[in-house]
Amino acid sequence: MNTNRIAEIGLLVGEPARAAMLLALMDGRALTAGELAHAAGVTPQSASAHLARLTQAGLLAMERQGRHRYHRLASPEVARLLETVMQVASLAPQPVRPPLTGPRDAAMRRARTCYDHMAGELGVALADALQARGHVELDDGAGLVTPAGLDFLHGLGLTGESLSGASGARALCRPCLDWSERRPHIAGRLGAALCSHFLDSHLVRRIGGSRALEITPTGQAYLRERFDIRTF
């Protein structure tokens, strides 16, 4: 293990402006330098310097589209690193009189994206429902989709390579410890497929430019009928 590399990543992630940029990309989208500068509250020149360092370190990937350059998290592993840091940060002692949280904070806890999968109360509820029905098994950082689970997911319309079980660099199913709920939601290819399905089917929709998701009336009915989830 290269301790210098660990220290380098820690310094990069630990700088407030860079941390704000990385968190702005946790919904899986690619953003321009100007959008990330706004998210971090820095000048475009400062943002460009920060983005260059993050890209050089392999934490970000840059794509060109016409005259624009778009930046995104380099991999699911980077998103997992950030989610873990958020989990550790949430364990820090809180002030005696913590500040009141606004509507966006409540919405983020209710449902949000964690890179390309769903988190918050919604993500954990889906993980619980799939486990209760014997469709997935989650344990100590590993996950398994059962044959009955594959049949259930195919019935939802989730088919193709994302759920084929073929070997690949990314796990089909794994637990991701939710920083707000302190319990696992589902990540991996299954988590990404579920998130895409919910967004494409208008079961959830993004709230503004944040990671927060709003569950639509159609989504509430879908959760009751397909997952027996009645808390939303």
Automatic annotation (TrEMBL):
Molecular-function GO term, any one: DNA binding
Entry annotated with the keyword GTP-binding: no
Alphabetized UniProt keyword annotations: DNA-binding
GO BP, sorted A to Z: response to cadmium ion; response to lead ion
Domain HTH arsR-type positions: 1-93
Domain of life: Bacteria
InterPro entries reported in the protein's UniProt record: ArsR-like_HTH, HTH_ArsR_DNA-bd_dom, HTH_Metal-responsive_Reg, WH-like_DNA-bd_sf, WH_DNA-bd_sf
Name this polypeptide is given: DNA-binding transcriptional ArsR family regulator
Species this protein is from: Oceanibaculum indicum
Taxonomic classification: Bacteria, Pseudomonadati, Pseudomonadota, Alphaproteobacteria, Rhodospirillales
